[in-house]
């Protein structure tokens, strides 16, 4: 029978605890080493609802879903202009960016179908329908190479806003100087007999104050958030929207591929449809709140005459035909089939 001294047992216990402590420390350090932080360039202010209620929320969801293995660090200021953000991600200058497809309309002509008149008034439905359409028809298109699409979203129904009168007929809008952005809006304004003035939404206040403009195209949310409520008091609500806008959230493809397959799947579990739904719900809330605020402040809301609606419809139909005829230039074999798919998805989602 071998006797083991209490001192020996004590020493072994100390060694065991020390070994366990080292193991825990190594495991902790290993976990920290595996955590990956991606940079995100954001071109709206930190107080803007896109920052606080969409991008920050999504970044937190990513970190939570991956148990801290993937983190998003928003840069203190944008790396480039809004129109440069697709390239910033594609070239890997920053890891993640978001932006407006309309800022590069020729490059993203394949997505024009989602910016036409009568796109829809349910922003959540249009955003998710756009994601489904991208996944089905555009994910393999060379235009979108070099990045991983993490989500898309819609702007919501565009409104004809005027500083002094209701725009309800073609006669009302004729010769009016209207701020617009992008080729679809430009053609609509021209075809309706108005004078298009190309300028970013951020310049609208200055141009309206200087009487360079008579009116400006915005969603109701933008009228409020760009502080144009004093300059634009008349709003023509076109059923289905006068136009729409489309947005992206993308990551550099090389950076995306560095993630494990498991983490890629986890990130996408809170991106894609989930992100597009978050985007649409947030924009819808902002539009609804803006409508209520403008109503309370005594703004005038008008509906277009049948004559104006018919003319907008005719312009829309011709634009769709012209867009479809150029399908070879943007690499879509059946553009009208894609459009029909998008419209059906919107209808199903908005029920």
TrEMBL record:
Keywords: Signal. InterPro entries: DctP_fam, TRAP_DctP_sf. The keyword Transmembrane helix does not apply. CDD domains: PBP2_TRAP_Dctp3_4. Pfam families: DctP. The keyword Acyltransferase does not apply. It comes from the Bacteria. GO terms for biological process: transmembrane transport. Residues 1-35 form the signal peptide. This is ABC transporter substrate-binding protein. It comes from Marinomonas hwangdonensis.
């Amino acid at each position: 029978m071998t006797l083991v001294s209490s001192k020996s047992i004590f020493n072994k216990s100390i060694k065991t605890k020390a070994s366990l402590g080292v193991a825990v420390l190594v495991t902790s350090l290993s976990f920290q080493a595996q955590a990956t932080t991606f940079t995100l360039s954001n071109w709206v202010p930190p107080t803007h609802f896109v920052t606080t209620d969409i991008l920050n929320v999504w970044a937190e969801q990513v970190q939570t879903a991956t148990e801290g293995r993937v983190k998003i660090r928003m840069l203190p200021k944008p790396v480039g202009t809004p129109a440069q953000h697709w390239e910033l991600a594609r070239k890997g200058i920053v890891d993640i960016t978001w932006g407006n497809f309309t800022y590069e309309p020729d490059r993203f002509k394949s997505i024009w179908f989602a910016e036409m008149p009568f796109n829809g008034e349910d922003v959540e439905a249009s955003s998710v329908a756009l994601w489904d359409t991208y996944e089905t028809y555009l994910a393999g298109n060379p235009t979108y190479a070099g990045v991983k699409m993490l989500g898309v979203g819609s702007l919501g129904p565009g409104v004809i806003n005027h500083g002094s009168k209701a725009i309800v007929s073609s006669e009302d809008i004729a010769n009016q100087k209207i701020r617009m952005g992008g080729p679809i809006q430009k053609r609509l304004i021209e075809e309706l007999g108005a004078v298009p003035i190309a300028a970013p939404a951020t310049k609208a206040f200055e141009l309206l104050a200087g009487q360079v403009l008579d009116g400006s195209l915005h969603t109701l949310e933008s009228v409020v958030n760009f502080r144009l409520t004093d300059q634009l008091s008349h709003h023509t609500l076109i059923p289905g929207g006068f136009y729409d806008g489309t947005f992206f959230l993308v990551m550099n493809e090389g950076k995306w591929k560095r993630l494990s397959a498991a983490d890629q799947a986890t990130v996408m579990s809170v991106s894609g449809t989930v992100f597009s739904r978050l985007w649409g719900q947030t924009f819808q809330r902002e539009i609804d709140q803006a409508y209520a605020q403008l109503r309370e402040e005594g703004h005038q809301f008008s509906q277009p005459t049948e004559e104006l609606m018919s003319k907008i419809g005719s312009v829309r139909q011709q634009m769709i035909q012209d867009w479809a005829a150029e399908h070879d230039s943007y690499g879509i074999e059946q553009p009208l089939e894609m459009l029909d798919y998008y419209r059906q998805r919107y209808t199903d989602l908005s029920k």
